[in-house]
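ok so i was messing around last nite and threw this chain in just to see what happens. nothing serious, just curious
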Amino acid sequence: MDKLRFKKSAHKTRFPILILLAITIISGCHHTKKIKKSDTSQTTTTTPTVTTPISTVDANVQQMLTSLKKNELEFKELTAKLKTKVSSPELNQSFTTNIRWKKGEKIWLSMSIIGIEGARVLITKDSIKIMDKINDRYILKPISYIKQKALIDLSFTDIENLLLGNLLFFDASKAKYANNASNISMSSDGARFLTNVVFNKPSNFLSSIFVTDKQQNQTLTSAYNNYQTTLNKQFPLDRLLTIKSAGQTFQMDAKFQSINIAQGLEYPFSINPKYTIEK
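result:
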């Protein structure tokens, strides 16, 4: 009976990967359905948030990017808990996610509904492991599995940057800065992506990101609210993400409940021998 609460029958192949992708976009600026990186983007695990040399970037733009970097959470290991509601043509579900994260090495996710764990995910630099408890299966894939399922090419470092709230699909060398009456905005019209970023005044906290994929005619809007002092930084605990593509809408409302520094965490991922293994 417990498994029926996860709406098993209609979403065998989609539930775990949708949840995985939902988690990886909670804090970032990217499109989960059919956006790919442009050909000039770096795809190694050392991809920086802004790849353009500082000397070619407008001074005001660079100042805002530097401010974002200074406000990035600093840690070796942490735990986090968040409540998330996902709405899409294929899935409408609220769930709780517990995260264990060893920076630069691995991200462990446990997703549950009404206290029942439905999926567990372990992401490393070269692989993604998914324990699908709903359908009694274990999925072991290379990191490129994200691109295969969602048509987005992300390295492990990219996923970390997304969780930290760093910008992607933003060409700093082409960015234009505007100091408006109530906010500061930056727009970057790249070869493929048109990205607009808005910061609140007077805090200069990131308020929203709007990305248009000009090749695929798709859009992403991500709004950030409820900034609170977290690990001595100002961190937006609430996020609302809306993705529109081919007449369909994916929306995710995520609220962080806690974020804590940790040490010596365990990342359990034992497999039930009765599970079907997919590679």
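not much to say yet. Residues 227 and 236 are 4 Å apart (CA to CA).
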